[in-house]
Amino acid sequence: MATEEFNKPSSLPPYPEMIMEAIDALNQPEGANKSSISKYMESKYGEMSADHADLLTTHLAQMKDNGEILLVKNNYLRPSPDAPLKRGRGRPPKAKEAIPEGTETVTSVPSATRPRGRPKKDPNSAPAAKKPKIASGPPSVSKTGRPRGRPRKVKPQPLQNGVEA
Length: 165
What we know:
Elements: H1 2-7, H2 15-26, H3 34-45, H4 52-66, E1 70-72, E2 75-77
Helix pairs in contact: 2-3
């Protein structure tokens, strides 16, 4: 018996539809606030469900995010038809160039034929010649007259007659 009531289809229209109807019916130039929308819905459709306030808040927020309604000073109103569309977050996609109808497009090799990552070395190929190592002599001197990098650690001189030189 409880399942019959639970599975019974709702006689109410969807919330976005009811919200738009309430905003249009209230016909206030500065828009309708949440409580006036709720009162209109309760007067027209009778007793609402217990979670009506939560559902109304959720649907108003969704519709505001989608750009279906505008929120101005805690009042909801329909956007004007000539208003610019609300752009989503992030960088907009690049405009695609129109391809003339007479030209054929060259399709590249599908990426599925080539495996991902760095290609394996060919085990049958000859080993690569090693680069000759330059003998490390005295460090090269730069324009300033000093060698590059950190200077070498100076080794202390051995003691002579108990006095360090």
